[in-house]
Specification:
The protein is an alpha+beta fold. It is built from seven helices and 20 strands. Helix content is 24%, strand content 26%.
Length: 315
């Protein structure tokens, strides 16, 4: 399947000077956990929040901006992403502990934040080691696991608006709900401060090991996937509805509903983004027919399609 051609001639020539780096026609498949997807027209890796703010303040108004982290819960469509894809890196990966609180940049891996808290004897953030991704993504979707969510531990977050202005957001400003927040989608999180509680380092380490073992046992963590595909409907479990609809092991092209955990889609080796998205829509259709419940995507889907989807759905 050929990726769609971007229509803008040399977008990179229209972008403002930055201290970070620009790159053209960057394969996003190499960055996503699904290992699929088309290219970014331009990728921008800002040096720090000041660099990002200056870019946002001076970029051409007609240039779309998309932010990605480590793309653990993301599906990039086969036609790629037009405009500028912002990839936060080292300048946003700082982690510092202070008393029973931890400050972390938006690009800090959730598991690294959990480890830093454990080393500092801060309990209450162990759940983060069970969430693949970064703090920025966790803020955006109110990520949670093993009985806790970001909303339970946040002190405040910093985010840049589309004009590059930094805003300090208190918990009440975030509008947290299950697997979402009310912060506008075009705002970019730069970091957050999280609150734990004093704890015993050995006990914290044991709890983190329990979470790691539980993930290894119940989830296809060693296969290209995008994490939980659908959000749990109120009072229900998405995987149970998928199981009831007979979708465990269902496949389309190189995409398959995991046999290990049927709320995970996996790339068996040669899937396209269209295979994965089409399979997810088929799962939604079958669950709706069987149970009357409409599953909502938890995986974020970005970009443009490259053409008709390929592969038939097979039971």
């Amino acid at each position: 399947m050929m990726a769609a051609k971007f229509t803008n001639a040399r977008l990179i020539d229209r972008l403002p000077p930055v201290r970070g780096r620009y790159a053209e026609d960057v394969s996003l498949a190499k960055l996503t956990w699904f290992k699929v997807g088309g290219p970014a027209e331009v990728v921008f890796r800002p040096a720090d929040a000041g660099d990002l703010g200056a870019f946002l303040a001076t970029r051409p108004a007609d240039v779309p901006v998309t932010v990605i982290g480590v793309a653990s819960n993301l599906l990039i469509r086969d036609g790629g992403v037009p405009g500028v894809v912002v990839r936060l890196g080292r300048g946003f990966a700082n982690i510092q502990s202070d008393g029973s609180e931890v400050s972390a940049g938006a690009a800090a891996l959730d598991i690294n934040v959990a480890r830093a808290a454990a080393e500092a004897g801060i309990a209450g953030l162990e759940f983060l080691c069970g969430i693949p991704g970064t703090i920025g993504g966790a803020l955006r979707m109110n990520a949670g696991a093993y009985g806790s969510e970001i909303k339970d531990v946040i002190v405040h977050a910093d985010a840049l608006d589309p004009e590059g202005v930094v805003h300090r957001l208190e918990p009440g400003d975030m509008g947290f709900e299950y697997r979402r927040c009310a912060v506008p989608g075009d705002w970019i999180f730069a970091g957050a401060r999280l609150r734990g509680r004093p704890g015993d380092a050995a006990a914290i380490a044991r709890r983190m090991e329990e979470i790691r073992a539980a993930r290894d046992t119940s989830q296809p963590v060693r296969t290209p996937t995008g994490g939980s595909t659908f959000a749990n409907p109120p009072g229900m479990k998405a995987w149970e509805l998928i199981e009831r609809a007979g979708c465990r092991g269902l496949s389309r092209g190189g995409a398959m509903v995991s046999e290990k955990h049927c709320n995970f889609l996996i790339n068996t080796g040669n899937a396209t983004a269209a295979d994965l998205e089409g399979l997810g829509e088929e799962v939604r259709r079958r669950v709706r027919v069987e149970t009357g419940v409409t599953l909502e995507w938890e995986i974020r889907r970005l970009g443009v399609n490259a053409g008709p989807s390929v592969g038939e759905v097979a039971s």
